[in-house]
Amino acid sequence: MTNCASYASLNRAGRSVGGTHQRANTDFAAVLAQTTARLTSMRDWAFSGGAKIERAKEHVADLELASREFLESHPYSAVSQFDPKRRELKFVVGTGHTVPARLASITADAIHNLRASLDILWHQAWSKGSSGKRKQYFPLVRNAQELQARFKTINLNP
Questions:
Q1: Cβ of 111: how many Cβ atoms within 10 Å?
Q2: pTM to 2 decimal places
Q3: Can you tell me the mean pLDDT for 139-151?
Q4: Could you give the CA distance from residue 70 to residue 154 in angstroms, rounded to a whole number?
Q5: What residues does each domain of the chain span?
Q6: CA–CA separation, 88 and 81 (whole Å)
Q7: Burial grade of 52 (CB within 10 A; 0-12, 13-18, 19 or more)
């Protein structure tokens, strides 16, 4: 709001209260619109994108705790077995437990929040604070050719 406050002293004619600077109302409106767009963009990122990253960190901490609890239950066993016919030693790993579905769910939540934060940041970078543009999503591609093709579809000079 500091940028807006510096223009608050302008009177209706576009002059500062002291009368030393002339500004057209259109200049004021343009500066105000640009500043508002920038502040809104940063605020949106801080509230939505930044919040998504913070939530992902919480999910990762939850995953570490849940994984540690699962592994401390010693869910796997390893035994060696000698095969006299083949004259070789085999190592067999067995499990009596299944991996809890909760671990997959926590992992998926963390990935989703990180991906959403990338989408938000990507959209703001491409739209430059303008809400009138089509939503852009962070590109997921398999190789360099797909990435190049993706960028060909984006008009950099609207």
A1: 12
A2: 0.55
A3: 83
A4: 46
A5: 2-152
A6: 8
A7: buried
